[in-house]
Amino acid sequence: MLTESTYEPAQAVYRHTILAGDRWMHVVRQGQIFRIHDLEGNQAADTLIYDAHHPDDRYSASDTIQRQGKLYLTTGSVLYSNLGHALMTIVADTCGRHDTLGGACSRESNTMRYALDKEHMHACRDSFIRGVQECCEHHLDKRDITCNINFFMNVPVTPDGRLTFADGISAPGRYVELRAERDVYVLISNCPQLNNPCNAYNPTPVEVLIWDGDR
Amino acid sequence: MTQLPPIPEGDLLHRETIRGGGMWSKVIGRGKTLRLTDLEGGANVGLLLYNALERHERYNMPDTLKGQHIFYLTAPYCLHSDMGRLLCSITGDSSGWHDTVCGCSDAKLVRQKYGEKTYEEARNDFHRNGRECFLIELAKWGLSEKDLVPNLNLFSKVISDEEGALSFDPTHAKAGAAIDLRCELDVLVVFNTCQHPLDPNPQYAPKPVQLEVFRNAPVVEDDPCRLSRPENGRAFQNTEVYNRLRF
Ligand SMILES: [Zn+2]
Q1: What is the whole-number distance in angstroms between the Cα of residue A123 and the centre of ligand 1?
Q2: ipTM reported for the complex, 2 dp
Q3: Which end of chain A has fewer beta carbons closer than 10 Å to its terminal beta carbon, N or C?
């Protein structure tokens, strides 16, 4: 469902551009509003979310899918943790559909999906691993990297059970905005994938913004 | 429904029945196949898989789906790990559809759907839930909440419409349906027989499954699982390199 935000970038308390292929991890406090802005269009923002105080409790694709009875995310979708807690709620969305199934690329899965000699290519899972090792006092590791959200990606499932990788439905300037339901860490790998036509083989930057949400 | 071929008695290593609302975990070595059979119809097996020796390598839902351009499992597809390798391949399946995305039930869901039934009241017929069963069995292998990832739901069919809305097919799970999971690594198998979280049956009525393990023939070059997708062929190569170097 397409919904515009009333928050103005000039009023944001935090603003940062994540370059193509880079990682970013930051706390978003309960009640704050968090926006991911697809600057140039169809760029996958691979996103993991952890309870900032108990990071074993983190975004769970299957809990989110099961509890809303739906595969895709848009305005009104609640992102649930593996222990059944609401972490964030999507409150505005100018893209309309975000993927819960596609997960993140990794150097290992690139060998499986594309060719054995793609192993050297930079991939989201390596960004996630460095993200949790470097940017969090809880000493997280590979076991903490579970199935992520792919904001701005379109991976439709057909009623006969096929998975298709459709052309993106995002465009330059589209955004998704979430309200934190508790204090959370948000970890983004701005995907460096060069083998998949969904981003026209050209990873681009995304911008993140945070507002204090009392209005 | 075409029945799976009978297991030659000389290859059978183990057979037991797991009651409804039960749980099980063991390591099954590469070269062996696990057959699960829905004895009465309506069974659900919530299944998680790990590399038995490197337990931070585990079943990965997105790589399994992306690698095969599918949303459900059946033969001759494969169960991918997060490391570009295969944990199991599905060498036989008379069910036709196994859910990959809906996860498991928890205590709150079971209480809301079926009401409270304690051990004191019902002894071993008390109400169990999928997540608690997983956490109990995982702990026995040194694993915990961190290792709870999207699980498979064998024998359960959930379809998606064009908008992504899910529906559970209550007529799908037939008595006698069986699936063969051939282990391609030494695999820690963890499962419970709690009801599917979207099962519309208002009764708490988890169903039993039969479990058999048998020696399988070596994997050959023209194995149907290996040939089912080029991605699976490459994942078999990665798995063979791992096993060749390690053993
Ligand atoms: Zn990626």
Answers
A1: 5
A2: 0.96
A3: C
